[in-house]
Design goal:
The protein is mainly α. 73% of the residues lie in helices and 0% in strands. Helix 1 packs across helix 3 (55-107).
């Protein structure tokens, strides 16, 4: 979530900073680092939100969607640059990053410190089998 927030702020800053500023270099570097970190975190996270039976398919679909986005983004940015300019491109990027952060924050399951069984049990409103209380039967003689 933090990387999305910093990347959003960096995108807005890139839209507003003068083009001949040294700050442009440092802000661009911060944005690049955040986008790289988002990519590195997003793919493992996305595989954790699919049940075991469809995990490989789900992770593959997410990876394919990411590759399609990586292919389409330069073309879309090229067209947008001609229409809205440098600042407009980075404001659009900031909006997309903010929407991504909001969607993950509101709809994405929390997986930190949980086993996959716990993640899916939380989503289903069940008690995971591994953490269910064990009830011992009393011995009858």
């Amino acid at each position: 979530m933090t990387f999305f927030s910093v990347a959003t702020v960096a995108s807005v800053a890139l839209a507003l900073v003068p083009r001949d500023s040294v700050a442009l270099l440092f802000i661009g570097m911060a944005l690049s680092i955040c986008i790289t970190c988002i990519s590195g975190i997003f793919f493992p996270y996305s595989s954790e939100v699919y049940p075991t039976a469809v995990r490989a398919t789900g992770a593959g679909l997410v990876s394919t969607a990411g590759n399609v986005g990586a292919l389409a983004a330069p073309v879309a940015i090229g067209y947008a640059f001609g229409t809205v300019g440098f600042g407009g491109v980075f404001l659009a990027m900031a909006a997309l990053l903010a929407v991504g952060a909001l969607v993950i924050r509101t709809l994405g399951p929390r997986v930190t410190g949980k086993t996959l069984e716990q993640v899916f049990a939380d989503e289903a409103g069940e008690v995971p089998a591994a953490s269910a209380p064990v009830v011992e039967k009393e011995a009858t003689a």
